[in-house]
């Protein structure tokens, strides 16, 4: 990640949940977002197949109300931070059996942004006094998201 990208991610975590993150945290973060995007796309693919479609649409992704709220919060934060283009570049679009619609391609950075806000806020639920997430906090957050997404 470039220095510009790192500073934008640092601002995102600071604005979303008053957290201080560093480069090592951002590597964990990037892995997390790409794993969760993959998980959402797998379910989206199953939904599209169940509807006998050969393309995955945004409505196929299992976006919960909470994730949708975080996507809206990210949109507000992104007006200041301008991170969507970076997320679009960094978010992997794994090869699946079905193709992605253009609308879905455009939506994935927003989903990644929502996941980012949700992750940042989850640290405060795990430990309300946390300022700088440690490895154990990241692992707990990952286990929580693996459980629900």
Structural descriptors:
149 residues, 71% helix, two-stranded parallel ribbon, globular, mainly alpha, single chain, Histone, subunit A, 6 helices
Give your account of this protein's structure.
The protein has 149 residues and is an all-alpha fold. The chain has a two-stranded parallel ribbon. It is globular and about 50 Å long. It has one domain: Histone, subunit A, CATH 1.10.20.10. It is built from six helices and two strands.
Measured by DSSP, the beta-strand proportion falls in: under 5%
Shape: globular
The H-level CATH homologous superfamily, spelled out, is Histone, subunit A
Radius of gyration using CA atoms only: 15 Å
Q: Please write the string of helix (H) and strand (E) elements.
A: HHEHHEHH
The overall pLDDT average reads 94
End-to-end Cα distance, whole Å, is: 26 Å
CATH topology: Histone, subunit A
What is this structure, in a nutshell?
With 149 residues, the chain is mainly alpha-helical.
List the helices and strands and how they pair.
Elements: H1 3-17, H2 23-50, E1 55-56, H3 65-81, H4 84-90, E2 99-100, H5 102-126, H6 135-148
